[in-house]
Amino acid sequence: MRSISIHFIFLRSLITAAALCALSGISYAVTSAAVATPSASAPIDTACPALLNQKFKSLQGQPQNLCQYAGRVVVVVNTASYCGFTEQYKGLQTIYDKYKEKGFVVVGFPANDFGKQEPGSNTEVADFCERTYKVKFPMIEKTSVVGGQANPMFEGLFKATGQRPQWNFHKYLIGRDGKSVQSFGSRVSPESPEFVGEIEKLLAAK
After folding, report:
1. Angle made by CA atoms 54, 139, 133, in degrees to the nearest 5
2. 46: pLDDT confidence band, cut at 50, 70 and 90?
3. CA–CA dist 77, 197 (Å, integer)
4. In angstroms, how far is CA 69 from the centroid of its own chain?
5. How would you label 2-40 residue by residue, b for 16+ Cβ within 10 Å and e otherwise?
6. Cα angle vertex 44, ends 38, 50, to 5°?
7. DSSP-derived 3-state class of residue 19
8. What is the pTM of this model?
9. Could you say which of 56, 76, 135, 200 has the lowest number of CB atoms within 10 Å?
10. Catalytic residue numbers, as ranges
């Protein structure tokens, strides 16, 4: 009888130990999984700089949220199809092609404010840009960029620099932070050492 009792106690100890080990293993597996899995509620930085927090339509009528360019170096330029500076489309496309993979974009804003040199419809402007200069960078629908009629983007650029466009192809260069802005007059070529040098400096800044 004593032998049976000893065997029973021994068996019960084995069962208890096995159960503890199993529970320990389950606990470890759950803990490990919790550590390995990123928190679904981890905050994601989706902030858009106020200057780029603008919505427009493209020349083709598609919605364009400029927040998509947050974190990039951006050139904003008012354009016209029948201006002495219209040839700058070539230079703008050249620098866009050269630097776009590094986080750079050109955004054109056709405007009929100076000399009535952008008289056509959005469709006509889009056709001219594609047919004449093979423009591939984003182009916003026709708008105004001067005085009290300036669209919100150009009004923000004026507040940032204290300078409004004096003619077609005035260029604003916006840093990656969406806050630092430089202003360049119409006579500054997009491919000039001065302009390209500033673009490269801003691209190098992370």
Report:
1. 160
2. low
3. 18
4. 2
5. eeeeeeeeeeeeeeeeeeeeeeeeeeeeeeeeeeeeeee
6. 175
7. helix
8. 0.78
9. 200
10. 83
